Amino acid sequence: MSARAAETHRSARPAAASKSLRFPGTTMNKLLCCALVFLDISIKWTTQETFPPKYLHYDAETSHQLLCDKCPPGTYLKQHCTAKWKTVCAPCPDHYYTDSWHTSDECLYCSPVCKELQYIKQECNRTHNRVCECKEGRYLEVEFCLKHRSCPPGFGVVQAGTPERNTVCRRCPDGFFSNETSSKAPCRKHTNCSVFGLLLTQKGNATHDNVCSGNNESTQKCGIDVTLCEEAFFRFAVPTKFTPNWLSVLVDNLPGTKVNAESVERIKRQHSSQEQTFQLLKLWKHQNKDQDMVKKIIQDIDLCENSVLRHIGHANLTFEQLRSLMESLPGKKVGAEDIEKTTKACKSSEQILKLLSLWRIKNGDQDTLKGLMHALKHSKTYHFPKTVTQSLKKTIRFLHSFTMYKLYQKLFLEMIGNQVQSVKISCL
Ligand SMILES: *[C@@H]1O[C@H](CO)[C@@H](O)[C@H](O)[C@H]1NC(C)=O
Ligand SMILES: *[C@@H]1O[C@H](CO)[C@@H](O)[C@H](O)[C@H]1NC(C)=O
Ligand SMILES: *[C@@H]1O[C@H](CO)[C@@H](O)[C@H](O)[C@H]1NC(C)=O
Ligand SMILES: *[C@@H]1O[C@H](CO)[C@@H](O)[C@H](O)[C@H]1NC(C)=O
Ligand SMILES: *[C@@H]1O[C@H](CO)[C@@H](O)[C@H](O)[C@H]1NC(C)=O
Ligand SMILES: *[C@@H]1O[C@H](CO)[C@@H](O)[C@H](O)[C@H]1NC(C)=O
């Protein structure tokens, strides 16, 4: 035995001694214990610290303990080493294998063909046994490949099944749901309606998502995003020049519940820079609708919208008349195609309002009222029917006389403070 082995042995002795003290017994016992520790250490030493790994072999010819090389994976032991010759290892025959360094004089027989519903993941060769695995979507239970469990509605997958293990399902916790039977789908979060500026109309449970709906502040189907009245209310906040962080400044200075960053990003993605201001104020209004001041604004906007509909809603213009009206507005024109789409999507009472909103967006948020006044000045050129001219005049007059909103703007500015004013407010 080499000096190194002896050293390892020596250093391990105190541990062996204390072990035998803890299990008091006969001297024989102690000796046996020490012998086992010695053996254990020599095995460790032979396997860990040398390469190729070695084993002790008693050589009958010389009556000596020899350290022989073990046989590598893929072979079996044909002859122990002698004082003169190294160990002789020979390759495993077909369908046999060994997968570690060893001292066995035979190889192991590869597992027979795979079971039903299994596939061969790894074919047998000299160094590896055949590995069978259940097909996709199944796991091994004792002898059979069974289908992974599907979690029913109300339950979600917390651990997907593997070839060895079944799916683990768990009941969806509060705020989550699963509406399908699936071996893959986890529980999903209920949709947060307010994040989308929508109202929660039916609260979800473990099997159903929240149901959101349009907030009825705008005519959803026809898709008028910002109404004439909202524009009248909020126009003051649209700056004449946009700085890149304009929206953030506005968000930071609006009182009440802040519009969250996610919604701000969504508004930025979905709307042109001018339109963003209206959308933000709209969402802010919706999220703070329980605050007294906002309640009043909402009431007044509702009143305003009812009046506008009364003035303009019964106009019932033909396609040609709508076209002339759009022609008469300054700037970029709303084309025939948009007019046609509008007449299809919107009730006749909403068509003018929708087209005016399209015109505003097309023209980088020009003041719609100013546009309408321009149109009226030239109404003779465009041969509007008298009833239409009158409706438009009334509407303009109404929105102008709707002076309350100027008051709100003042209130607003006071609340918002100086920061926003310094970004230059266009109106007032
Ligand atoms: C035996 O199969 C294993 C796993 O498939 C592979 O890594 C190894 O290289 C193969 N050995 C021979 C000798 O083909
Ligand atoms: C499950 O809920 C989602 C989200 O609300 C919905 O889109 C989907 O259609 C629902 N699936 C079934 C099967 O009800
Ligand atoms: C929904 O989103 C709003 C705004 O981001 C947040 O304040 C609220 O806590 C969310 N609700 C739920 C149930 O997560
Ligand atoms: C979950 O909500 C749906 C519809 O909102 C309802 O039909 C169902 O009974 C509810 N389930 C439970 C367990 O309350
Ligand atoms: C929205 O309006 C529709 C009809 O226009 C109505 O049936 C629905 O109840 C309203 N929703 C809310 C949340 O007010
Ligand atoms: C609008 O006018 C058309 C014809 O010009 C008519 O057929 C239609 O019924 C009218 N609609 C309403 C709501 O008055």
UniProtKB/TrEMBL annotation:
<dbReference type="GO" id="GO:0043235">
    <property type="term" value="C:receptor complex"/>
</dbReference>
<feature type="domain" description="TNFR-Cys">
    <location>
        <begin position="133"/>
        <end position="169"/>
    </location>
</feature>
<dbReference type="Pfam" id="PF23630">
    <property type="entry name" value="Death_TNFRSF11B"/>
</dbReference>
<dbReference type="GO" id="GO:0010804">
    <property type="term" value="P:negative regulation of tumor necrosis factor-mediated signaling pathway"/>
</dbReference>
<dbReference type="GO" id="GO:0042489">
    <property type="term" value="P:negative regulation of odontogenesis of dentin-containing tooth"/>
</dbReference>
<dbReference type="GO" id="GO:0005615">
    <property type="term" value="C:extracellular space"/>
</dbReference>
<keyword id="KW-1015">Disulfide bond</keyword>
<feature type="disulfide bond">
    <location>
        <begin position="172"/>
        <end position="187"/>
    </location>
</feature>
<dbReference type="GO" id="GO:0030198">
    <property type="term" value="P:extracellular matrix organization"/>
</dbReference>
<dbReference type="GO" id="GO:0031012">
    <property type="term" value="C:extracellular matrix"/>
</dbReference>
<feature type="disulfide bond">
    <location>
        <begin position="193"/>
        <end position="212"/>
    </location>
</feature>
<dbReference type="InterPro" id="IPR000488">
    <property type="entry name" value="Death_dom"/>
</dbReference>
<feature type="disulfide bond">
    <location>
        <begin position="92"/>
        <end position="107"/>
    </location>
</feature>
<comment type="function">
    <text>Acts as a decoy receptor for TNFSF11/RANKL and thereby neutralizes its function in osteoclastogenesis. Inhibits the activation of osteoclasts and promotes osteoclast apoptosis in vitro. Bone homeostasis seems to depend on the local ratio between TNFSF11 and TNFRSF11B. May also play a role in preventing arterial calcification. May act as decoy receptor for TNFSF10/TRAIL and protect against apoptosis. TNFSF10/TRAIL binding blocks the inhibition of osteoclastogenesis.</text>
</comment>
<feature type="repeat" description="TNFR-Cys">
    <location>
        <begin position="91"/>
        <end position="132"/>
    </location>
</feature>
<dbReference type="InterPro" id="IPR001368">
    <property type="entry name" value="TNFR/NGFR_Cys_rich_reg"/>
</dbReference>
<feature type="disulfide bond">
    <location>
        <begin position="134"/>
        <end position="145"/>
    </location>
</feature>
<dbReference type="GO" id="GO:0007165">
    <property type="term" value="P:signal transduction"/>
</dbReference>
<feature type="domain" description="TNFR-Cys">
    <location>
        <begin position="91"/>
        <end position="132"/>
    </location>
</feature>
<keyword id="KW-0964">Secreted</keyword>
<dbReference type="GO" id="GO:1904399">
    <property type="term" value="F:heparan sulfate binding"/>
</dbReference>
<protein>
    <recommendedName>
        <fullName>Tumor necrosis factor receptor superfamily member 11B</fullName>
    </recommendedName>
</protein>
<feature type="disulfide bond">
    <location>
        <begin position="114"/>
        <end position="132"/>
    </location>
</feature>
<feature type="site" description="Involved in dimerization">
    <location>
        <position position="427"/>
    </location>
</feature>
<feature type="disulfide bond">
    <location>
        <begin position="110"/>
        <end position="124"/>
    </location>
</feature>
<feature type="disulfide bond">
    <location>
        <begin position="68"/>
        <end position="81"/>
    </location>
</feature>
<keyword id="KW-0677">Repeat</keyword>
<feature type="disulfide bond">
    <location>
        <begin position="151"/>
        <end position="169"/>
    </location>
</feature>
<dbReference type="InterPro" id="IPR052459">
    <property type="entry name" value="TNFRSF_decoy_receptor"/>
</dbReference>
<dbReference type="Pfam" id="PF00020">
    <property type="entry name" value="TNFR_c6"/>
</dbReference>
<dbReference type="GO" id="GO:0006915">
    <property type="term" value="P:apoptotic process"/>
</dbReference>
<dbReference type="InterPro" id="IPR022323">
    <property type="entry name" value="TNFR_11"/>
</dbReference>
<feature type="repeat" description="TNFR-Cys">
    <location>
        <begin position="133"/>
        <end position="169"/>
    </location>
</feature>
<keyword id="KW-0732">Signal</keyword>
<keyword id="KW-0325">Glycoprotein</keyword>
<dbReference type="GO" id="GO:0045671">
    <property type="term" value="P:negative regulation of osteoclast differentiation"/>
</dbReference>
<feature type="disulfide bond">
    <location>
        <begin position="71"/>
        <end position="89"/>
    </location>
</feature>
<dbReference type="InterPro" id="IPR017371">
    <property type="entry name" value="TNFR_11B"/>
</dbReference>
<comment type="subunit">
    <text>Homodimer. Interacts with TNFSF10 and TNFSF11.</text>
</comment>
<keyword id="KW-0053">Apoptosis</keyword>
<dbReference type="InterPro" id="IPR011029">
    <property type="entry name" value="DEATH-like_dom_sf"/>
</dbReference>
<dbReference type="InterPro" id="IPR057633">
    <property type="entry name" value="Death_TNF11B"/>
</dbReference>
